Give the backbone structure.
Amino acid sequence: MLYVLFFGFVLTILISCTLLIINSIGETKHNNISAVLIDSGENSSVYKQVDEISAVEQNSSDGEVNHYGYVTLTTAHERLLYTRIGQSVHNISKEKDENGHFSTERIRISGEHMTEESIRHSLNAYLSDNPQVFWLENLFGYAYADDDTIVECYSVMSAEECSEKVGILSDRIDSILDNIKVSMTPYDCEKYIHDTILSSCSYKEGVTSMADGWQYFSVYGAVVEGEAVCEGYAKSMQLLLNMAGVPCYTIRGTADGVEHLWNVVNVRDDWYHLDPTWDDSDDNLNYEYFNVTTAEISKNHIIAPGMVYMSETNAEQTESRNFFVPDCTSTIMNYYHIEGFKLTGFSAEENEQMIGFLVRRAEKGDSYIPVCISESLDYNECVEKLFYSFPYKFYYYIDAANERLSGNQKIDRNSIKILKNEENMTLRIKLNYIDR
């Protein structure tokens, strides 16, 4: 009898340990989204519907603008799951489940045992295409019932709180887009949205994961609360530019060795890289990463590779990858190309051109003078000649410009600040004005 009891006790311990091991390997992480096995039984949750962000696609110029993730889906089941996720995420449970999560409405994909990786691919594609869905955890659950796959996602907040935040974000988005005029070019729209986000949002230091605050990775954090990390900046640009009719998407990679997100944007049929996070600073709005080429961005950014799959039935994604990576080669819509002065030398004619440029910028009250130094010149020698050694050419330009300017248009030559970017051969000169 003692042997039987002892054997039973040992067997119980072995079963418990086995179950612990199974449960511990049931949750895995990939691309920052965890997966957990769930009970395939009947779900008793009661769901409440959450409104969509108002007019998310009303101004989209192309039906495919937001769907670069979707087109990488290789099977009918992945595409069906993507569509069902879009419906499910707007139905959130009223109360937390036994694991402390607000679940979204369960999805059932009939006739297919989808792999965990295939499910993750669909979810990643949906989230990349839909930055307006800001409330999902980096977690999904899945189970199998007969020949079907069951999937559920999880919200970081209740349906009531989510609805409230959706309303607040919708109002804020409307107020931003209301300032876009019909006469504005795509470049103007892009610059306006870029400046609006950077003027109202600050980079949140010390944040490494959603455990530090989901909002910092979201449009809501950047646009409403005014604090975000790179993901929040990039998703906000993606959402607002697409709503303004300017195609925009996010790019994953690293910058100075740290995981990073930024954007690509299509202006007048050419793609450009745009990094709003790196354009932000405590003191200034910068434009060093405003519509740059792949070659330019690659000087200090590494672009993650595009999606690669072994076969339609065995999707393999071994690292962080991009759903869409255009080759950006044009400089036509670069900030310095559009708004800057191209310094090619210091002849009398070139001096007059610079003085005229300075007058025009001062008449508009511009705070910054963008200058692009020709590759035929030595960057440091030009900077030295302009600001630090005789004949101090830029101060000569200011004096000559002030003779043509009146009243409070005159430039204060004693409060010039210089923002140098030797790598890109550019200068931004901050101006202050007399009697302002």
